[in-house]
Amino acid sequence: MTKPTESRAARGLSSGPGSGRSWRGPSVAAALLLAAALPLGATARPAHAPGDAAVLSAPALTLLHWIAQTADNEGQPFAIIDKRRARLWLFDRQGHRQGDTPVLLGLARGDASVPGIGERPLKDVRPFERTTPAGRFIVHPGRNLQQEDIFWVDYEAAVSLHRVRATNPAERRLERLATSSPLDNRISYGCINVPPAFYDGRIRPLFLPAHAVVYLLPETMPLTALFRPGPDRAANAP
Fold it and tell me: Does some domain include residue 45?
């Protein structure tokens, strides 16, 4: 059995809610078929200038259409994260775009967390286990052991969204965020690292008053494998 001092506490994590994963709404299969012709509607307007480098990726736009049509965010602010692009797009309760930013993600490609990984100390997490899970997550505010505010994405897997911490110069986390390529944005143990200015100026004010939703797009499986209809949509595994 893992000792308490070697579980989340040893990973710089403290108290928080249960697992944030939550599947809701009908399948995105229809959105995948109709996204090219489907208007966004009044509840989702991803404003961006022509030629904007941060225009939503095709999967992110497909998911945004689906959220607009199904009201899947349930009136809460939300973020869409494309792991392949290593980018986060932020939206308010009405689906109006509030900005976007590059992010740092788990070192390893993959869409599921290793079972029980949230109870293991960082030194025991192998490189290929450092994944950022995909899915729909209800996020909650929390704090780590350094009393820094964070947002829990999946508490059971010890995955959170927080400011980037440049505590290890060799990892060059700030430099990775500043490059134009997403290829060097895979460095974390699974958490989502955000530039401090964007976290404090955009995410924190929007997510703090209530719950929020984070959608993490898959990178090793189809979008439809995660967002599906039926009573089993609350399952933790895709």
Answer: no
Long-range CB contacts for residues 173-176, cutoff 8 Å, separation at least 24: 173/104, 176/104
What secondary structure does DSSP assign to 60-90, as a single string?
Answer: HHHHHHHHHHHTTTTT--EEEEETTTTEEEE
Q: What is the spatial distance between Cα 65 and Cα 28, in angstroms, rounded to a whole number?
A: 9
Domain CATH code at residue 84: 2.40.440.10
Q: What is the pLDDT of residue 150?
A: 95
User: CA–CA separation, 169 vs 24, rounded Å?
Assistant: 40
Beta strand ranges found along the chain (DSSP E): 78-82, 87-91, 97-102, 105-106, 135-143, 149-154, 159-163, 186-188, 192-194, 212-217
The residue-averaged pLDDT of 93-109 equals: 94
What total number of domains does the chain contain? Answer: 1
Spatial CA neighbour of 79 closest among 137, 4, 127: 137
Residue corresponding to tokens 């993959």: 110
- Amino acid at residue number 21: R
Containing domain of residue 196, as a range? 4-35+56-234
pTM confidence score: 0.79
**Integer Rg of the chain from CA:** 17
Write the single-letter amino acid at 225: A
Find the length of the chain. Answer: 238
Class of residue 197 by CB neighbours under 10 A (exposed 0-12, middle 13-18, buried 19+)? exposed
Q: What is the token pair recorded at 201? A: 């100026």
In this structure, which amino acid lies at residue 28? Answer: V
